[in-house]
Amino acid sequence: MKLPKFTKEMKNENPTPPWQKEMDENDFISCNNSFVFGEYWDEFDKYSFECKETGNITYYVYDPVKHGADPDKKYPVLMWIHGLNCAIDGIRCVGYCGAEQYASRKYQKSMGGGAYLIVPLANEKRLEDDTIVGSWDEHYIAPVKALYDKVYTENQEHISCRFIMGASSGGYFTWRLIEEYPEDFDGAIPIASGYFPSYENLKKIETAQIHLIVAHGQHDEMADFEQCILPHKEVLLSMKNCLCYFPEWVRNADGGVSSVNYGMEMGQHCLINQFQENLLYDDGTCYDERLPEGVTGWVKGVCEQKRKTVD
Q: Rounded distance, CA 159 to CA 121, Å?
């Protein structure tokens, strides 16, 4: 797939999005996120996972115990899967994929005192004609799961439950991992995915009691809502432990309708920014009343429910 280079020179701070005419007259367009990009990169440690099939996989890990969490407690582990073109920028991918703010003290505390964060990077390259190669595909499924298992095994005494989440092609890869390994995850958040599982696999996911947040904006410019979600909406709504988050408008934390334009408009596709904001507006109110404490509250709740089931 070809993509623009997303340089500052190509960024349009005052775009006229194709969906602007559908907005309410009193609404406004927002081009800026409230979180500070790059604030927590130094808290992620860099590793390499050996893999002959795909090439060695670089990955980053945030260890809550290393950063002051109680070593006698257990914490969730969250793996964030990036979208197309994000891995090319190395450590910046920790921000692009949605993981960075979850290393903040505020987010860590609201997940029960801490959480492990894993960010694997596909071996992406940009060709001279701007085609992106080396992105997530079927060859990565087993290696990334093995990478996840490695981090889990090395920290097993500190880990309670296991999550995976990702947006765009990261949403596709999130679906694929829980399709292949439904018994190995407690929660998943596929976001803005152009891929949808078979109904047979959805049943396996439901039987495995994986808690889901399936998220997709209704004005998504790259993964059309009517094609990707609408035909399956009723099936998703019928699933146990599945929360469907389909906002009419993807908004930034200031309440404005999100626009991201680097030569192509994709603000409504970048639903990951809402998740980086923990689905909470700047004033502390929630994007969705079913998630009053945001994503971190949902993670904490899934872990508490699992603990009660085990007990």
A: 22
Q: Write the pLDDT tens digit of every residue in 185-222.
A: 999 999 999 999 999 999 999 999 999 999 999 999 99
Could you tell me the two tokens for 297?
A: 């509250």
Q: What are phi and psi of 245, to 5 degrees?
A: -115, 100
H/E run at residue 245: strand 242-245
With H, G, I as helix, E, B as strand and everything else as coil, classify residue 163.
Answer: strand
Q: What is the dihedral of CA 133, 136, 142, 148, to 10 degrees?
A: 120
pTM: 0.95
Contact (Cβ atoms closer than 8 angstroms) between residue 117 and residue 103: yes
**Strands in 91-149 per DSSP E:** 116-120, 125-126, 132-133
Residues 168, 97: Cα–Cα separation, whole Å: 10
Nearest to 80 by CA among 224, 202, 177: 177
- Indicate the residue type of 277: E
Given this model, what pLDDT does residue 220 score? 97
Model confidence pLDDT, tens digit, residues 136-170: 999 999 999 999 999 999 999 999 999 999 999 99
User: How far apart, in Å, are the Cα atoms of 98 and each of 38, 92, 116, 250, 252?
Assistant: 12, 11, 14, 15, 14
Residue 230 neighbours by CB under 8 Å, 6+ apart: none
Distance CA 302, CA 210 (A): 9
Token readout for 262 is 């680097």
Say how far residue 299 (Cα) sits from the centre of its chain.
Answer: 13
Query: pLDDT of 44-69, one tens digit each?
Result: 999 999 999 999 999 999 999 999 99
Residues 31, 37, 40: CA angle, nearest 5 degrees: 160
Cα–chain-centroid distance for residue 180?
A: 18
